[in-house]
Design goal:
The complex is a heterotrimer of chains A (283), B (223) and C (217). Chain A is 52% helix and 12% strand. Chain A is of the alpha/beta class and 283 residues long. The longest helix of chain A has 33 residues. Chain B is 73% helix and 0% strand. Classes of the chains: A alpha/beta (283), B mainly alpha (223), C mainly alpha (217).
């Protein structure tokens, strides 16, 4: 009994130590894990696969570096998929640092050998239109005119001089939108404005915190596919046949979840045993 | 060399924050205070370049007035140099409202900040009134009207309806209504539990990101 | 005047945004465009207000030599560091371009600090799971079980410990079901509840019934 009482009052630093160990040790291990594909990620992947080559995909980078561990692997996989399938990518950001994250993802991709041989051409295969302040109001303006919302790209080139942007007026000229979101403004706002008001087709990659909040949109068809957190990143990578950080970190993620689950179990056992004893005392 | 220094600086700050896990200490307090200062400065600069400069100062012509050469003339130049009315002069109202917002710092005339505040609140109210009605109320209700031909549909309907009943506080939760509200709580608890699970996943991912930085990018121990 | 004008402002702006949703043409789209820019300018000033207030408090603390005042010096120094770098040494409007001093501070100081601050929550979530996640009542048990299954079912190990079950009935499938059915139902109820709340509050604000925001009662 004393053991359980001690367990109940264990120093929290011991718990921290276990969590740290559970996350660090797997970084050095190389164990292959089977990653199950969820229907939401499969739908997202299928949506990309159904797009004919040459289709125009708008990728909105609505996150910043603190959320990068979850969203950057998803961004890299989505960009690779677009380039491999010859889909044209238009990048924007409603978060100031979003377009920078896109550039970092592109840098990561372009050092791969297959892209060194045939690197996608800026302005033809992809373009980065940069950040525009205004949150959801930017989406609303894009509904009437994308060129007036983004008159210049990230590098300062006028939009009319960019071949990829020729003929793009509003959402009706885009074939798919992928929103990478870590909060506000993000998936909720894109659904409210781009999907419900301007009838665009959209999928989303979210942080795990945000993913449960947008599940109802998947069920209603407002979202065509959803990839949530590191697990979503790993699934997306498995589907595209590319092993990136999402897959690599799933081992640490597994260990972390196991340790939290064990804490819950041990905490409850200790609680019920000590509570039973207290009742006996009172009795 | 430069990247070694940058990574070491970032690593020290990372360790500084993590050191709080042992106990509150001067290094953590230093990092925390630095974080507050730097993030305040970040938003200060960011808002200036993203909003105030292009939307207020450029449109009014203040940037041009201060000697910037790569900027077009603004409303003030058009009015006073060419004698033409420029609709961008209306941005002066926004500028005045902005200054009124800053006057909150002066307690004697702090009440003036109510005007810009009213503008902000009115904008958000008008904007959200329709969008939430369309996307989050109507579309969700519409998709809850499902055929009762499967167990999942039944659970979805019962869960949504009883959940909404729980949020209805104008009637006392008693009898059949109370029973439905009780079922609603159960669904909400499952929802919160699932959200908790996903939150754990998210926070662990962020920590993995930092550890990957420390052991991979900085120390080069993880490939 | 102190109260009437704010109420009028709220009503005009609110109605313009509602009308332009249905009639996105002149003159409403022009008003919407203008009001949006005004909104962003005022919002920027609101953020400046917060920052200036922080500075005011920090400087007051330093001046009065309050508790832990040296850390307030660090806060002010951090603010000045990135602000001076952003305004004077980072090429003006291109202040965020890679390689600028502003970008350097952002990447090497701001990012590790903010990312680690959020990452720290991982430890506290684990600690809270151990200390507070108890199956005391039926509701708490449901919450605990949902979290338990979702945590295990969303990592490969979940299927590993239930691989003796037929395909389609393993932990990942159970998690899929939780997320797509009861979780979606609960989330939808919350979503509808919030939407109705936002709609009624918006209407009260626009019609001037809700006056607390403008200093009324």
């Amino acid at each position: 009994m004393e053991f359980f009482e001690k367990l109940m009052s264990i120093d929290r630093r011991v718990i921290f130590l276990f969590v740290g160990a559970a996350l660090i040790v797997p970084l050095f291990l190389d164990i292959e894990q089977k990653i199950e594909i969820t229907p939401e990620v499969q739908t997202l992947y299928d949506a990309f696969m159904e797009l004919p080559p040459g289709s125009k995909v708008l990728m909105t980078f609505d996150y910043d570096p603190p959320s990068a561990p979850e969203l950057q692997p998803q961004a890299i996989t989505a960009l690779r998929l677009c380039f491999d399938r010859n889909l044209k990518v238009i990048i924007i950001g409603l978060w100031p640092m979003g377009p920078m994250q896109a550039n970092l993802a592109l840098e990561t991709i372009f050092i791969e050998k297959k892209y060194l041989d045939r690197e996608p051409i800026y302005g033809v295969d992809y373009v980065n239109l940069g950040y525009s302040p205004g949150n959801e109001l930017v989406i609303q303006r894009m509904g009437s005119s994308i060129p007036s919302t983004f008159p210049r790209d990230f590098r300062g080139t006028p939009i009319e001089e960019i071949p990829l942007m020729q003929g793009i007026v509003n959402f009706s000229n885009l074939d798919f939108i992928l929103n990478l979101s870590a909060g506000y403004p993000g998936t909720v706002e894109w659904v409210q404005f781009a999907v419900d008001r301007f009838h665009a087709t959209m999928g989303a990659c979210n942080t795990a915190v945000q993913a449960p909040l947008v599940y109802p949109y998947v069920h209603t068809g407002q979202l065509t596919g959803l990839s949530g957190g590191m697990k979503g990143a790993a699934e997306f990578e498995v589907l595209t046949g590319f092993t990136g950080k999402g897959t690599k970190f799933m081992l640490s993620q597994s260990f972390a979840h196991i340790i939290v689950v064990l804490f819950i179990i041990i905490g409850n056992i200790a609680y019920f045993v000590t509570r039973g004893r207290e009742k006996e005392k009172i009795g | 060399m430069d990247s070694v220094f940058s990574n070491t600086l970032a690593a020290i700050l990372t360790i500084g924050i993590i050191s709080f896990l042992y106990k509150d200490n001067p290094l953590y307090k230093f990092c925390e205070s630095l974080f507050i200062g730097v993030s305040a400065g970040y938003w200060f600069v960011q808002q200036y370049y993203a909003n105030l400069l292009p939307k207020l100062f450029d449109n009014l012509g203040i940037t041009r007035l201060l000697g910037a050469e790569n900027v077009a003339d603004g409303a003030l130049q058009n009015l006073f140099v060419r004698g033409q009315w420029d609709e961008n002069l209306l941005y002066l109202i926004a500028g005045i409202l902005g200054v009124m917002m800053l006057l909150r710092l002066v307690p004697q005339i702090g009440w003036m900040s109510r005007w810009p505040m009213a503008f902000i609140v009115g904008s958000i109210a008008g904007l959200y009134f329709i969008t939430y009605f369309q996307s989050n109320a109507m579309r969700q209700m519409q998709n809850t009207i499902l055929p009762l031909n499967s167990f999942n549909n039944l659970v979805l309907i019962v869960g949504t309806v009883t959940g909404i009943i729980y949020f209805y506080f104008s009637k006392e939760h008693k009898g059949a209504f109370g029973g439905a509200a009780r079922v609603g709580i159960y669904f909400l608890m499952v929802t919160f539990g699932a959200s908790f699970g996903y939150t754990v996943m998210s926070r662990m991912s962020l920590l993995i990101g930092r550890l990957d930085f420390l052991f991979g990018t900085w120390l080069g121990l993880v490939k | 005047m102190r109260r009437q004008i704010p109420l009028l402002l709220t009503a005009i702006v609110g109605f313009v945004y509602i009308i332009q949703f249905f009639i996105p043409h002149r003159p409403f789209n022009i008003f919407e465009h203008l009001f949006t820019d005004w909104f962003l300018i005022i919002a920027a000033c609101a953020i400046w207000l917060g920052v200036l207030n922080l500075l005011k408090l920090s400087l007051e603390k330093v001046y009065k030599r309050g508790k832990d005042w040296p850390y307030s010096v660090v806060t002010v120094a951090g603010f000045l560091l990135i602000t001076i770098a952003g305004f004077f040494f980072s090429g003006g409007r291109q202040f965020q371009n890679p390689g600028t001093p502003f970008d350097y501070i952002y990447v090497n100081i701001f990012t590790p600090l903010s990312a680690t601050m959020f990452a720290l929550l991982a430890f506290f979530v684990a600690s809270a799971s151990y200390r507070a996640f108890r199956a005391r009542t039926r509701e708490a048990t449901l919450l605990l079980l949902a979290g338990f299954f979702v945590m295990l079912g969303r990592v490969p190990v979940g299927d590993l410990i239930t691989q003796w079950l037929p395909v389609g009935y393993r932990l990942s499938n159970l998690t899929d079901w939780i997320m797509n059915v009861p979780q979606t139902a609960g989330q939808r109820a919350i979503m509808i509840g919030i939407a109705l709340g936002i709609m009624s509050t918006s209407l009260r604000v626009i019609l001037g019934i809700e006056r607390t925001i403008t200093g009324g009662e």
